Amino acid sequence: MKYSISNRKNLTILKLEDQVFDIRTAKPFRALIEEMLDGATTNHIIIDFSQVKAVDSCGISSMLLAHKIANQSEGLAIFVALCQQIKELLRIAGLDKQLYIFTSVNEVMTLIEPACKDRKGKKKSSKTSQIDEELPTPDVDEIAASDFADEEGIADEEEEDDEKDTVDNLDDEDEEDEDTARKKKKAASIKKRGRPKKTQ
Questions:
Q1: For burial by CB atoms within 10 Å, which of 22, 60, 121, 158 has the most?
Q2: Where is this region: Disordered (predicted)?
Q3: What is the pLDDT at residue 37?
């Protein structure tokens, strides 16, 4: 099987250079896909069919197998530049909606670049949110409990002050009663004695 491999913006491009993709290329094609996905930095492969002019049922099965192997590696097998005969066979087999088929490599790159940027942005935002989650936050329950304890302490102090004021007022009233009683007693004793007699 003739082929060439190139890289473009972190994507691996496998270009098939045989004009017929059939049972003779099925086995080496599968081995090549597994090898590329096993040691690659990316799990996405673009398979260029621009040189392929004919395909049989084994070739269609090989395309479906590449799709499944890429999915198992959490990647994509993207088929580009398919001739009309291959497109028609895929449509009849009901695989044209299952496989990732594009017109050219440039079309794929145009679609993938924004997706890569979005993915990088999501990674940054997820790291930021992770840092925010790791930062220690005060326990709301503990704060509420401490505030409640402070309020209770203030209330207790206010009650103690009120009790002291009440006791002081009672003491003042007792002292006033004693003073009043002394004055009354003194006035009564003066009345009993009467005015002092004049001495001749």
A1: 60
A2: 119-200
A3: 85
Residue 110 and residue 175 share a domain: no
Written as six digits, the tokens of 1 are 């099987």
Q: For residues 137 and 41, what is the distance between their CA atoms, to the nearest angstrom?
A: 39
pLDDT digits (tens, 9 = 90+) for 134-174: 444 444 445 445 544 554 554 555 555 555 555 555 555 55
Indicate if 16 and 62 belong to the same structural domain.
yes
pTM of the predicted model over 0.85: no
Determine how many CB atoms are found less than 10 A away from the CB of residue 53: 13
Task: Tell me the β-bridge partners of 101.
Answer: 79
Check whether residue 72 and residue 126 sit in a common domain: yes
Per the document, the length of the chain is 200
